Amino acid sequence: MSDRQESSPTISAPSKSLKPVWIKPDVDFIRVLSKETNNTFKLCMQCGTCSVTCGISPDRAPFPRKEMAWATWGMKDRLLADPDIWWCHQCNDCSTRCPRGARPADVLSAVRQEAVKHYAVPGFLGRWIGQGNIVPLLLPAVLLVFALALRDPLWNSGQGVLMYLNHEGFYANLFPHWLLIGFYSFFWGLAMVGCLVGAARYWQAMKAADRRSGWEAPSTGIMSSWVRTIKSILVHDRFSKCTSQASRKTAHLGAFYGFLALFLVSAWAVVALYMINPLIPGHDRDLIYPFAIWNPWKIFANLGGAALVVGSVLAIRERRSGEKDAPASSSFDWLFLFLLLIVGTTGLLTEILRYLAEPGGVEGMKYAAYSVYFVHLVAVFDLLIYLPYSKLAHIVYRTVALVYTEYSGRNQKILEQSN
After folding, report:
1. CATH assignment, 4-119
2. Which of 125-129, 339-343, 373-377, 392-396 is the least confident region?
């Protein structure tokens, strides 16, 4: 799509001139949206009810009215460079009040899914995961078996170094900590490179779209923009404006903080093994994984696991309610929700089974514990390593979009009114 086609004053503001434009629809994109939304976006008559209804829609170029027009016209490039698609939290206030049943919230959800695939690096992983293909989810099982086969050769060749990272433990007898840390660190590093490249591409696309529309006036510093955004995300203040699906805030908070807690504990375990254990002789061994049952890190992890399970169950229940207020869900959504539930459930089960299977415990429980632990490792891999390509990528792209709207001053009036 040419720059000329995207400079229409009817689809972006402010505009420097009123010029007629030619729009060349992306037919393939229209087909994708039609499949994902059952053609509901074509019912839109541009009445503006959705934008008036939305409690977080900005004063300048409010959404989702303009996004519904762009979707109808097949303006893929303009939609995928729009930060407002990530402002939407699919609370469905706009969809329940739309007089035509166009379901704008579900349309924006489908556009976000396409955005994740579009900016993914490498692109084939974005398309693979985005289509709900389960094959990539099984790949970690193969990689973990391969890593397990290399356990003894690696230990024998690098024992002088690896002994500092080694720790005795029930599950460490199957997968030593040094092996898991090396395995996950390698693939996590690759995923983060792809994540950063995708986020940078999206940032540049938003800047280019604003430049073409005649809006490019940063009003705040980049650091203050990040501070405002992180604060907003932590308190989930935008969810409080939802009415038809207000309960989604509870589910989202549980999943969000549960995941965050588990991530922090895992990060600490890695730091402790890599840095504290080899560099500080004679330190307090309670700092190192595996933690005792009453260790603060263990308690924090258990609370996080419980919150993750509760949040996931609530989110799944709400999406399966069948009520008209419930947001539409694709395989892209379901894979993520059930993956969160599996990670939380198997994580708690591995702890319970460990105590049952330790010496003096239930006979034959060891193999059940190892089996659940293996499933847990595969699920954690799927969740973390495929972050840039699954719905978890929302953490990245929504954050980048919110920071950009702060930085560019697009939502300045909203901030002034809320203060």
Report:
1. 1.10.1060.10
2. 125-129
Helices (H), 163-295: 177-213, 222-235, 248-271, 277-279
Whether the link from the prior residue into 122 is cis, omega within 30° of 0, is: yes
How many angstroms separate the CA atoms of 215 and 209, rounded?
9
Q: What is the pLDDT of residue 2?
A: 38
CB 129 within 8 A of CB 386: yes
Please classify residue 223 by burial: count the beta carbons closer than 10 Å to its beta carbon, then call 0-12 exposed, 13-18 middle and 19+ buried: exposed
Q: How far apart are CA 318 and CA 162, in angstroms?
A: 47
Taking the CA of residue 179 as centre, how many other CA atoms within 13 Å lie in the half-sphere pointing to its CB? 22
- CA of residue 361 relative to chain centroid, distance: 39
**Burial status of residue 418 (CB atoms within 10 A of its CB: 0-12, 13-18, 19 or more):** exposed
First to last CA, the chain: 40
Task: Say how far apart CA 126 and CA 73 lie, in whole Å.
Answer: 24
Phi-psi region of 264 (alpha: psi -120 to 50; beta: other; left: phi over 0): alpha
Classify residue 188 as exposed, middle or buried by CB count within 10 Å of its CB (0-12, 13-18, 19+): middle
Mean pLDDT, rounded, of the chain: 80
Determine the Cα–Cα distance for residues 206 and 81; give it in Å rounded to an integer: 5
The closest alpha carbon to 292, from 342, 344, 354, belongs to 354
Residues ≥6 apart with Cβ < 8 Å to 19: 7, 8, 9
Identify the pLDDT of residue 168.
66
Q: Which residues of 332-357 are buried (b: 16+ CB within 10 A; e: fewer)?
A: bbebbbebbbbbbbbbbbbbebbeeb
Alpha-carbon distance of 169 to 336, in angstroms, equals 31
What is the C-alpha to C-alpha distance for residues 89 and 330, in angstroms, rounded to an integer? Answer: 15
User: Which segments of the chain belong to CATH 1.10.1060.10?
Assistant: 4-119
